[in-house]
Structure formats: C-alpha cells, structure tokens
Amino acid sequence: MEFTLEQAGFAFLAAVIVIFSIMTVTTKRILRAATYLLFVLFATAGFYFQLNYSFLGAVQLLIYAGGIIVLYVFSILLTSSDEDKKAPLRNRRMLSGLIVSIVGAVMCIYLLLTHCYPPVLFTEGEVDMHAIGYAMMGTGKYQYLLPFEAVSVLLLACIIGGLLIARKRK
User: Fold this and answer.
1) 138 by DSSP, 3-state: which?
2) What are the backbone angles phi and psi of residue 141, rounded to the nearest 5°?
3) Which of 41, 50, 131, 134 is most buried, judged by most C-beta within 10 A?
C-alpha cells in the first residue's frame, strides 16, 4: 500500500487533534486548555483546506480559532480569581468519567464503522457559496435554519450568563 503526501497530512492533522484534545481536557490550567483548544481548531481548519473547502476553512480560522478563543480568554481573565480553588476529583468521579468516555468512544467508533455513507455530491472543485447559503438558511429537509437559530439563542444565553457572572464578581 502506497502512503501519499495527502494521507501523511491527514494523519498529522488527526494526531494533532487527538493529542491536543486530550491535553485540553486533562490540563488543570484553564488558559492552557484554551490554547490547546486553539490548536485543535487550527487542525480542523487544516482538514477543511485539505478537502478543498477553502470557504469553510477560512470561516473556521476567523470565527472559531480567532473570535471564539479570544472570547474564551477574555471571559476567563474577567471571571477567574485567585480565590477560586477547585477541589481535586475523587477517585469515584474520575472512574465514572473514564467509563463514560470509553463508552462514548466505543459508540462513536461503532457508528463510524457501521454507518453507510451516501455518495459525495460535490466531486469536483469547491462548493459554491450560494449553495452553502441556501443550505444554511433554508427550511427544507437537509437545510439548517432551525439549528442555526438554536445556536444563536444558545450564544446569546452564554453572553448574558457571562455578563451576570462578571457583574456579581465586582
């Protein structure tokens, strides 16, 4: 079996995502976790660029890797203080978290291996931005207006919650 440069790039990006995802959830410092999450988002953008989805890759870099991480860092710096000390996890909680993680990973791998994927609709070139816009803002069967609005309401609730927490700290 021949190992191409594209496969090597995919393997590198996958390894970066796995390693930095694990580092994100295992670190005890929250700013380091945000930095590790930034590397995960960069590698995800690398997947998009590798698939010739340059629009989605640029959106990933600008919105998630740029904007969201900056918001995380500012919210961490505004709301955390030296008085906040977290109690270490008990063995029972760590064991239950490990069991839930393993069950989730097994379920994901099972679904990936047994799912029948439909043929790819776009085999040549890039997806047109108008097609992406119609898919995002449409109300049809495979269109995403309702999830898009649900995420916007969730982000609004997060902003309001962050403002309330920051106001109580003063």
Assistant:
1) coil
2) -65, -50
3) 41
Enumerate residues 6+ apart whose C-beta is below 8 A from 55: 126, 127, 129, 132
Helices (H), the chain: 5-26, 30-50, 54-59, 69-79, 91-114, 129-137, 145-169
Give dist(CA 32, CA 34) in Å, integer.
5
The radius of gyration of the chain from alpha carbons, rounded to an integer in Å, stands at 20
C-alpha count within 13 angstroms, C-beta hemisphere, residue 90: 3
| 95, 24 Cβ separation under 8 angstroms | no
What is the identity of the amino acid at 7?
Q
pTM of the model: 0.56
Q: What are the backbone dihedrals phi and psi of residue 113, each rounded to the nearest 5 degrees, phi first?
A: -80, -25
Render each residue's pLDDT in the chain as its tens digit; 170 residues: 687 888 888 899 999 999 999 998 888 887 888 889 889 989 999 998 888 888 888 888 888 877 777 877 777 777 766 555 565 667 787 888 889 889 988 998 888 888 776 666 656 666 777 877 777 788 877 777 887 788 888 888 888 887 887 777 65
CA dihedral sign of residues 151, 32, 87, 80 = negative
138, 145 Cβ separation under 8 angstroms? yes
